[in-house]
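Usage

Read records sequentially. Each one opens with the input sequence:
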Amino acid sequence: MNLISAGFSGFALGGSLIVAIGAQNAFILRQGLIRSHVFVL
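and closes with the structure output:
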């Protein structure tokens, strides 16, 4: 598996997860992972 193949598979996996859970939920998960909370959920 070369670098381009690994990058493409990661991009495809990320895209499929965003489609599956929705863009707004992906934003909330990303903000939680970087610990940048605007308010308490």
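Summary fields computed downstream for this record:
- The chain has one domain: 3-33.
- The longest helix spans residues 3-21.
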